[in-house]
Write the structure tokens for this entry.
Amino acid sequence: MNHLAKKISVDTTINNFGDQRIGQQFSLIVPKLMPDEFHLGYFGRFGLYNGFPNYLSAKRKINHIFRIQLNKERQYPLPLQLADILNIDPERFVADHTLVPIFRSPDHNNIPSHEVKVLKAMGYILAKPNVCFCENCISEDLSYIGYSYWRRSHQIHGVDFCSKHGTQLMMAVDENSHYQSPNKILKLGRYLISKITPTEYDHPVIKKIYRTINGLY
Ligand SMILES: [Zn+2]
């Protein structure tokens, strides 16, 4: 898909996505959030569509908007920024698109996962040494939607196989790889292949974590 075609398809998505107040106010393109999309990867898609060349420049730009123009506190966490930009419920966004629910112990004194202080501590960290992707998911994404995206379900510690394809996950090697598309990391060869055997995916604890985070029970 060429650049113009991509921009048109994104703009069409915006028009179908309801209220985009912050996007409209600051002339930002707000791509559609995909199912199971990892929030750090979404921030990369958002940033690149808006012309911010890397993670740090995108963070600076968005932090400036939230701090100076929207009067949010200096360290207003990225997951809340993204929920605001998407104009969706922060509790739902954190539950469905971040790793925060699996980092937290069951004993957290009823403090919600979308609290600012929780997200300051847990809203940026990865569960594995770097972000992971499935080659087959990338192929399907490119065929069906024209771009690839990072899935949260591939980022869970102990899950080294794609639950949909049963294929080994690949792990990116460079810092902030989540800012680029998984397809770009694949094409550049900037990844490692997981060494863990498929039987480990069947470990009951790992399956329990996976099913819990995906709301299966
Ligand atoms: Zn897959």
Summary: Confidence is low (pLDDT under 50) at residues 4-18. Strands lie at 132-133, 170-172, 191-193. Residues 134, 136-137, 162, 164-165, 167 surround zinc ion (CB under 6 Å).
